[in-house]
Automatic annotation (TrEMBL):
Keywords: Oxidoreductase
Signal sequence residues: none
Entry annotated with the keyword Oxidoreductase: yes
Oxidoreductase keyword on record: yes
UniProt family annotation: Belongs to the short-chain dehydrogenases/reductases (SDR) family.
Name of this chain's protein: Oxidoreductase
Length: 271
């Protein structure tokens, strides 16, 4: 990607949190930025054009991309940030709830990616940055389904990158740890709660809230996205923040049994 002319960026889930910080960071770096939200945004976002899009709807995604292309004629960067969380025992979610989670976090990414690829291939240039998580690298008790979506994004992104390099397109992962956003306030809850998980679920909720309070600012993740978006020779993945880098390192080099014991201890589970 030509660093002197950053180009046109499209950021999903840009109304708040990481998406909003990313849109602003890209704008400040010189990109012409289009952000999306599922519902119309009343507030004005200086320098960022906000459009509505439901990433679970093919027609909505197609309409969004057509709008951006009608305005600019090109799309140089797609940041797939839109996503939702789910906290609870894996057994507590119905298959329908699991499918709904995957429809946003995985198939939403696929829909958006497929929608911009024809344009990027014609341009012979483009960058796709997918927001993963350290939970795409490690086990996540009581977030098994959410973690599964991020593991899926890891495999999809790395494989797709190999397919697209010959077209001048790169696919890169950004992996945050806990980030100070309203993520925990918007977590979905299991649709068939079981008493047997009440205590552990409540304990995990408390751990999550504390971790987010002590987490990185969204701007830390946004800077990692900018780095992933503009590097002339991008790395496959970018850990966003000190804790994310530590977790990535430990997962790669610490023996499995030791990592397992440490993870259970940190999550308040019997070792």
């Amino acid at each position: 990607m030509d660093k002197t002319i950053p180009g046109v960026a499209l950021v999903t889930g840009a109304s708040s949190g990481i998406g909003c910080a990313t849109a602003n960071t890209l704008r400040n770096a010189g990109f012409r930025v289009f952000g999306t939200s599922r519902r119309a945004v009343l507030e004005k976002f200086d320098g960022v054009t906000m459009l509505t899009c439901d990433v679970t709807d093919d027609a909505s995604v197609s309409k969004l991309v057509d709008e951006v292309l009608a305005e600019t004629g090109r799309i140089d960067l797609l940041v797939n940030n839109a996503g939702i969380g789910l906290l609870g025992g894996a057994e507590e979610s119905s298959t329908a709830q699991a499918q709904a989670l995957f429809d946003v976090n995985v198939f939403g990414v696929i829909r958006m990616t497929n929608a911009v690829l024809p344009t990027m291939r014609r341009q012979r240039n483009g960058r796709i940055v997918n927001l993963s998580s350290v939970l795409g690298l490690i086990p996540a008790p009581y977030s098994a389904l959410y973690s599964s979506t991020k593991h899926a994004i890891e495999g999809y992104s790395e494989s797709l990158d190999h397919e697209l390099r010959s077209f001048g397109i790169r696919v890169v992962l950004v992996e945050p740890a806990y980030t100070r956003t309203s993520f925990e306030e918007n977590l979905a809850r299991p649709d068939r709660l079981l008493d047997v998980y009440d205590a552990a679920r409540a304990a995990m909720d408390a751990i999550l809230r504390k971790a987010i309070e002590q987490g990185d600012a969204p701007e830390v993740v946004a800077r990692a996205v900018l780095q992933a978006a503009t590097a002339s020779a991008p790395k496959r993945r970018y850990a966003a923040g000190k804790r994310a880098r530590q977790i990535s390192f430990l997962r790669r080099f610490v023996p499995e049994s030791a990592f397992d014991k440490s993870l259970r201890k940190q999550n308040g589970l019997p070792v």
